[in-house]
Amino acid sequence: MLQALLSVDKLRAKEVLRAAREQYQPIEVVEGVIVPSLERIGNDWVTGEVSLSQVYMSGKICNEILGDIIPDNCRVRERQLNIAIAVLEDFHTLGKQIVKGFLQASGFEVVDYGMGVSVDDLVGRTVRDKVDVLLISVLMLPSALRVREVRRGLRQRQSGAIIVVGGAPFNFDEELYKEVEADYMGRTVSDAISIIHTIEKLRG
Asked: Where does the B12-binding domain start and stop, copy by copy (predicted)?
């Protein structure tokens, strides 16, 4: 699977998943084949062994072929977390799209609130949709600092949503996520998958 994704061979990747699906349940295919492959690719990007385009295409391919292998009426995860993702007051999409694609390819349902979302809008949508995990992507420091306002807004509305942040400002300052009262910070797409798995286990 790893070789198929890195060579952007969608047909080969589909064959691998189809063969696995004949022997294993959907969740076993996702967590035994897709997730390890995507995590490896994410880690290899950090060390410079694969390109950003390979990371992006790997998530895209897995996301596309997952529906072909697993029927629409077959839920990959019985106890789904309600996950949403947004770019807070910035206008960039690549990082968000990669994280979203990797999570969806790993069997998670993710609601996309888009980019340039204001604090008030993000708080309102999170409360309305009863979001369990809110993924926030930022590019600039001023936007990163406004995560604290999102936290306070959610607290005032009695939302217990877990906030996971990512983006350049948090990579430069590893303690920043604590200062803005986020719960977790991820540097890579593999971090995002690991964090969601951790939250799943904590939620039981």
From this structure: 79-204
Structure tokens at 135: 């993924």
Cα–Cα distance measured from residue 111 to residue 83, given in angstroms and rounded to the nearest whole number: 6
Residue 85 DSSP label: E
Tell me the whole-structure pTM to 2 decimals.
0.74
CA dist 112 → 27, 79, 137, 151 (Å): 23, 20, 12, 19
H or E element at residue 184: strand 184-185
Q: Say what the alpha-carbon torsion angle 157, 123, 147, 134 is, to the nearest 10 degrees.
A: 100
Tell me how crowded residue 92 is: count the other CB atoms within 10 A of its CB: 16
* Full strand arrangement of the beta sheet holding 110-112: 110-112, 83-87, 133-138, 162-167, 184-185
Q: Per residue in 97-144, pLDDT tens?
A: 878 888 887 778 899 999 999 999 999 999 999 999 999 999 889 999
